[in-house]
Amino acid sequence: MKSTHTIAALIIASTAVLSGCASNSTDPYNNGAYNSPVSSSMGYGTIDSIQVTRGPGQTSGAGAIVGGMVGALAGHQVGGGDGKKIATAVGAVGGALVGNQIEANRNGGGRDMYQIGIRLENGDYRTIVQDSVYDLRIGNRVRVVDGRVYRY
């Protein structure tokens, strides 16, 4: 009976730790890290660079919870005594990590985003990250409106 309480405690602890890694943000690129207050208004400039970046996948924590439970159950089948407890804990943590990664990949993890460097007319330099570049090319004259870049 003590073993099942230990397993339950390990599952809950690993789930709590890994759930802290989950993000509630719907758009990780619209957090102000790249887009300054000036770029949220309108401005004109020239594209200096365009780089493709890989966006992180969004997770709710459900993948970590399910993965942790499956990993703990698999680890509990190994060994006996203290070895069984260690295998259960390692299985729970490993399963939670794998489950979280599977959920991130399934939710569009790794989608391409475009980091666009713009030299504004006033001499400032802005970096805007958006999901597409359409017909934008280096050297194009552009306008920045509400954190998005458009050809001008």
TrEMBL record:
Where is it localised? Membrane
Q: Name one GO cellular component term.
A: outer membrane
Question: At the top level of its lineage, which domain of life is listed?
Answer: Bacteria
Q: Mention any Pfam family matching this sequence.
A: Rick_17kDa_Anti
Q: Tell me where in this chain the Glycine zipper 2TM domain is found.
A: 62-103
| Assigned keywords, A-Z | Membrane, Signal
Q: Which residues form the signal peptide?
A: 1-19
Protein name per the record: Glycine zipper 2TM domain-containing protein
